[in-house]
Amino acid sequence: MQRIIFDYAVFLLLIGLSFAVFIYSKITGPKEQTKANYVFASKGSVSMGAMLLSITRGFLGVKVFLGYPSEFYYRGSGMWETLYGMSLAFPLVLYFFIPVYFNLGITSVYQYLDMRFKSRLVRRLASATFFIRSIQNLGVTVFTPCVALKTVMGLPYWFSIILITSIAIVFTVLGGLRSAILADAVQSLVMIGCSILIIIHGFFIAKGPLNVFEVTKERDRLDFFNFNMDPTLRVSTVSATVGQLFMTLSMFGCQQNIVQRYFSMESQKQVEKALWLTIPLTIFLFSLSWIVGMVIFTVYADCDPRALGYISEIDEIIPFYIEDRFYFLPGFMGLVLASLFNSGLSIVSNLNSISTVAWEDFVSQIPIFKGASEKNQLWCIKSISVITGFIVMGVAFIVAQSSGVIDASQLMTSATSGPLLGVFVLAMFFPSTNWKGAAAGMISSHLMTLFIVLGSLSIAKEPNYLPVSTEGCTNTTFSPHIEPIFDIQYNQYKMSFMNKTHDDISSVLSTPEVESSSTDDILTMLYSITYMYYSFLGTFVTVFVGVIVSYMTAIRTRDDIQYHQLGYEQIL
């Protein structure tokens, strides 16, 4: 009981620290909040380190701590290879996207599309795509810590979702981008510390890193360099690299909440330095979560808690492990839960970006809002943030009906990356394209992706988790304070478990792996394509349709050519 009280005390203390960071930022920031310092952090007001942590955290999200370890435990290392695509994307963003934005002096990535195509329609299509993708991903971000809060504290999903979203809305209204960046940095440091402690302690239990490597290799968890070209495989080296490359380009090159951080830095040189430093930081943070998964799997290699019924969802393995193995360290569970809870609050910076885009590209164009003073504009942006927060809350409730945060997050990001990246590729690299082609390309890409996603729901899917074992289970496998589920010896349960097929003990994820189809049905094959390729397919369709439609509708004038080369000349 004393340990539980200590955990709750630490949990509340860390949440209080998050409030303190926002209050500190408010006190030390500009005395009067304006639209400019609410939307952007004042140049030079945020350190390079804080900016790097915020950018990386905004990219990887809370899934880096909770989702990837469980992914490794039950699915293996396939998704780890998305790191290749991430690393390849950063230099491309650095040399092709950043120069365009800085040389044109724009503050919104979608403003560039307006300048390039001279079309509000294209700009609004891109803004709407960003809005939809952000709302979906924020729903996953809010829901993810709720899994841990339910597993350990017994808090129902609805309570955690409402609590996290409500606090995030308050933070968004009170603070600005600077506050959100500083909070992201503090929360990232706490999560890094927790991960390192879990790894060090796990190495001790698992008899060293060499044994961790051997066990995970023997149990087929380490599966790198799988160059199977079958597009229906959930993940392979090829799909992980290609898919994540296009997703990362879309996020770091075309997404407003990331670009906002670029413009909060003092110069383009500083942005370039930050992006180069982001590569090793991303590799470190990303790999850290997978090593956590390796350690936990080694500890439970011969006695899987999920197979025994201690947990019901794969994403619950991290909180269960901490509850089981860190009972000797009072307050650590509270620290982890607070870190996860605060990770849900990382939506603050995203709500800021979404509300800004919604105001600039949609609401401000309504006649009644035209000519609004800067003060009224600021209040409108904050009001939009509140409304958006409640929408995110609703999406989180929908996400709660599924399981597997990695699948949910990757599916949503990949499905919306193609149209957004494709229209920027058209704008920068195809000077002859016009607004009609750009709009037709984006709409066609969205319809195709939606068609595939909806069609995939009609296909019978079999979950394909890697095998787990209960052969080493005893009455002393778990720590004393973990109440045994069975009053009899585990041997009787093991016999019944061993007679079950692997599919019988697996629960269905939102988008489980699908075995390759042998049918010649083209639609079935199309529906079976892994979501990792959605970003690539969406980009290709946007560019292909955009070029064809532009060619068919081209009316070339000198003025058109001048505007169509915006961005292309900046890159050259």
UniProtKB/TrEMBL annotation:
GO terms for biological process: sodium ion transport. It comes from the Eukaryota. GO terms for cellular component: plasma membrane. One of its GO terms (molecular function) is symporter activity. It is found in: Cell membrane. InterPro entries: Na/Glc_symporter_sf, Na/solute_symporter, Sodium:Solute_Symporter_SSF. The chain crosses the membrane at residues 6-25, 46-68, 88-113, 125-143, 155-177, 189-213, 233-254, 275-300, 326-345, 379-399, 411-430, 437-460, 531-554. PROSITE patterns: NA_SOLUT_SYMP_3 (PS50283). Keywords: Cell membrane, Ion transport, Membrane, Sodium, Sodium transport, Transmembrane, Transmembrane helix, Transport. Belongs to the sodium:solute symporter (SSF) (TC 2.A.21) family. This is Sodium/solute symporter. It comes from Macrosiphum euphorbiae (potato aphid). It is a multi-pass membrane protein. PANTHER family: SODIUM-COUPLED MONOCARBOXYLATE TRANSPORTER, SODIUM-DEPENDENT MULTIVITAMIN TRANSPORTER.
